[in-house]
């Protein structure tokens, strides 16, 4: 018998989420860039709950991974992919909410960092470095952004989950920021006036496309 994914305290499916985020911002006083990381505790975050219910439902009904389907479609299309290596792929998703939003997907179906092979760990570090450097070179200054690492819950079996990383930049252009407006805050509907294919092309033509020994540290 299937157990509910979410429930009340003490019931099957009740869950508390640890949310590790890393983000870069600029201080208003001196416009200097800083990077910080936070560890947050959340019970049933709305976005996670909606996505998780859909992923679980798709896997239960069709035995399919949602993100494997997305990845297969993106590889077949190709227009929104701007960089890849042997084990990971970087693209601007067609469902992006932020301008120049980027997702990094593992090509192999795996669920969390501990599942990575040594080669995959090296390739993950490489593609994150490439994406961050492209962002900083896009407008000629450090890009203010949030980097969200998404992996399976720590307890139980979660074969539906596919490891990926999302980047949410808040810069629309060289001199404009993306602000969360009323319809986004009140209704949860994001307005994005960019086209994923065009944003991918911008990142594709922005350096670097390979790392130098100095970049690798």
Concise structural overview:
With 217 residues, the chain is α+β, with helices and mostly antiparallel strands. It contains six helices and nine strands; from the N terminus they run E-E-H-H-E-E-E-H-E-E-E-E-H-H-H. The model is unreliable at 1-14 and 42-47 (pLDDT under 50).
Structure write-up:
The chain contains six helices and nine strands, in the order E-E-H-H-E-E-E-H-E-E-E-E-H-H-H. By secondary structure, it is an alpha+beta fold. It starts with 15 loop residues before the first strand and ends with a helix. The protein is globular and about 45 Å long. Helices cover 32% and strands 24% of the residues. The protein has one domain (65-216): HIT family, subunit A (2-Layer Sandwich). The strands form two sheets. It has a seven-stranded antiparallel sheet with strand order 2-1-6-7-5-4-3, with helices on both faces. It has a two-stranded antiparallel ribbon with strand order 8-9. Strand 1 (16-26) and strand 2 form a beta hairpin. Mean pLDDT is 80; it is low at 1-14 and 42-47.
CATH topology: HIT family, subunit A
* Low-pLDDT segments: 1-14, 42-47
Label the CATH architecture.
2-Layer Sandwich
* General form: globular
What's the total helix number?
6
Strand % is 15-25%
Which strands sit side by side, in order, in the main sheet? 2-1-6-7-5-4-3
Structural class: alpha+beta
Oligomer: single chain
Largest sheet composition: 7 strands, antiparallel
Using DSSP, what is the number of strands? 9
Amino- and carboxy-terminal Cα gap: 51 Å
Helix content: 25-40%
What count of domains describes the coordinates? 1
């Amino acid at each position: 018998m299937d157990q509910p994914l979410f429930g009340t305290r003490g019931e099957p499916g009740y869950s508390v989420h640890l949310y590790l985020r890393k983000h870069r911002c600029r201080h208003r006083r001196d416009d200097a860039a800083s990077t910080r990381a936070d560890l947050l505790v959340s019970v049933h975050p709305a976005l996670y709950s909606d996505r998780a219910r859909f992923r679980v439902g798709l896997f239960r009904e069709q035995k399919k991974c949602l993100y494997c389907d997305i990845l297969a479609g993106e590889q077949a299309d190709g227009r929104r992919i701007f960089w890849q290596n042997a084990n990971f792929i970087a693209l601007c998703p067609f469902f992006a909410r932020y301008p120049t939003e980027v997702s990094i997907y593992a090509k192999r179906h795996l669920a969390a960092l501990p599942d990575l092979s040594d080669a995959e760990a090296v390739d993950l570090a490489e593609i994150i470095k490439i994406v961050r450097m492209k962002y900083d070179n896009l407008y000629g200054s450090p890009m203010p952004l949030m980097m969200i690492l998404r992996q399976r819950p720590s307890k139980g079996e979660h074969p539906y989950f596919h490891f990926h990383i999302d980047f949410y930049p808040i810069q629309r252009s060289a001199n404009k920021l993306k602000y969360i407006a009323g319809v986004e805050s009140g209704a949860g509907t994001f307005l994005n006036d960019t086209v994923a294919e065009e944003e991918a092309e911008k990142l594709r033509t922005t350096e670097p496309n390979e790392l130098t020994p100095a970049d690798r540290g």
